[in-house]
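S., here's the first fold you wanted:
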Amino acid sequence: MIIRKTAAEVEKMRRSGLLVWEVLQRVTGMIKEGVTTMDLEVTAERMIRDAGARPAFKGYYSPAAGNRFPYVLCTSVNDEIIHGMPNAKRVLKAGDVVSIDTGAQLDGYFGDSSVTIPVGEVSDEVKRLLAVTAEALELGIKQARPGNRLFDISSAIEQHVVSNGFSVVREYVGHGIGSRLHEEPQVPNYVDRRSENPRLKPGMVLAIEPMVNAGRPDCKVLSDRWTAVTVDGKYSAHFEHTVAVTENGPWVLTRP
């Protein structure tokens, strides 16, 4: 069931969304050669706890993994698509890209967002991968308005990605969000005729998150049961915002 939020509930989500934005601003500003992904984790957890919020990911149980995610951040480097785990031995180096995905629950409601950042100089192709993925997210967000259908978001993302020669990850999708981190509906980044295609209505809140591979769309999960990587070893990018559907169009809750 899709849960439509009241104006007061959306305002609460706005506060959690802005906290997530602040955390991402701080940790992405730390990204440079020699920093470890655990350095980012420590800073993010301190910020969320100091704000009186609860990390959305730490302790989150996945039936597929069979255990709880142990960290505040997902730090996915290079060919890691999503759910990469912070590690004190994972030292960032020039030419890497790192996706930072995090969420927080504040006053009972969640915010969720991610961004992919280059470390030092990266190739022109990698720059284009990041730019196209970020653009795809913005195109998807523009479709999050009353009267449209969910697949208008999916189609806008898919068309932009494919027309630029990249591929959309199909095993992982966006989602509704509210008092639970994951709610209905699923928000695929491609048009899947087997999925529900509901009409968008005011009060719906969606985590829109294109995951885009430089090569093939195929992925696999590592032995940690969480980290998803590209099968061909090519880079991946991931951008996400929490977006409310309002009478006046989309409202991105995870940025000022």
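And the second, which I think is the more interesting of the pair:
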Amino acid sequence: MNAVNVGLLGLGTVGQGVVGILQRNANEISRRAGREISVTHAAVRDLGKSRPVELNAVTLTDNVSDVVNSDVDIVVELMGGTELAKDSVLEAISRGKHIVTANKALIAIHGNEIFQAALDNGVIVSFEPAVAGGIPIIKAIREGLTANRITRVAGIINGTGNFILTEMRDKGRSFEDALADAQALGYAEADPTFDVEGIDAAHKLTILSSIAFGIPLQFDAVHTEGISTIASQDVAYAEELGYRIKHLGVTTETPAGIEIRVHPTLIPERRLIANVNGVMNAVLVQSDAVGSTLYYGPGAGAEPTGSSVVADLVDVVRTFTTDPENRVPHLAFQPDLLSDKPVLTSDQFECAFYLRLLAEDRAGVMADVTRILADQKISIESLLQKEPIDDQNAVPVVILTHQVKEAAMNTAIEKIEKLDSILAPVARIRVESLD
């Protein structure tokens, strides 16, 4: 049979990883796919740039449309960004070409439109490399766990943030110092906003939530918080209480609706996911038949992400002779059977909390605080009073609460911060036991 021709939109780190894997493992891949897979075209920014992969059989161009309009069977979108990527993908779909993309922002923001166009044109859009790099988490949820009713997905899905929090815990470093090290090592961009403020994780969680619960992609509904406000003392106090702080993406189905949230989270240190360190990713899936399953591995890099791209290419090639009506749905559920269950707002979330207060060192202060919490029906699991800060007549106090509606916690914090005896804004971090 003829080889399947592939065109790359972008030939950076991941694109070169894809080419390298296809060349190195060509025989094994063709045995699995049933046909040879060959990169024949690639769009690049700089035609004169030297690249450490063999490109003699690849037609290079600096015009994306040249690839989209060529004779390739599959277009692999690796450009990043959303607008040019969206236009290029939709054009390729209109020309009957299948799509593989590593672009989580593209899928999270424009996926509903792209999947409808693919459905109309009888082509496939595969996006395994868009979430957690080399971890096959999308395939696991969409296919491996298809017999299960999934109740929760929780993941460390941004390696940069995990590296920073690991450095803060292991070496007692400040957020700023750990971030600078991440930038020096190439883990964080010069502008780290997408990573440290949770936007990158929110893109990925949008996708995971949709394939877990069969709802349309709704990036704008994700509650997103970053890690830039995490202080080194919070990391230390969490350790003292038997927890570790991770930047977690959590999506849960509740009777009222779907929670989709990204935020710093205290996790019991005995949990496997609490011991995922450095730039590694991990995703925990809880479901009714299997129970809890954990997926761990590198979340980025040329070959880990390239591995997921090539796996998607093999999947697409395998379906070339399959009736389009019988292919695995893009978002796991049949497109006309997606749920309209609402996505909850943050004040409807329910979880436990870690609170850190800076209080005057005098009698009666904690009585005022606990009264406010009691008024909002917030019960305390544990309370930790630290040594007074020299020369400030101030005492750090750490409180762990039981589960409570976030609206009640918001009210309580607002009232606590109005007390004359509370000397700084209350630091708040959610707590997840992940039982």
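Why I say that: The chain has three domains: 4-135+302-337, 137-298, 347-431. The mean pLDDT is 94.

Talk tomorrow,
H.
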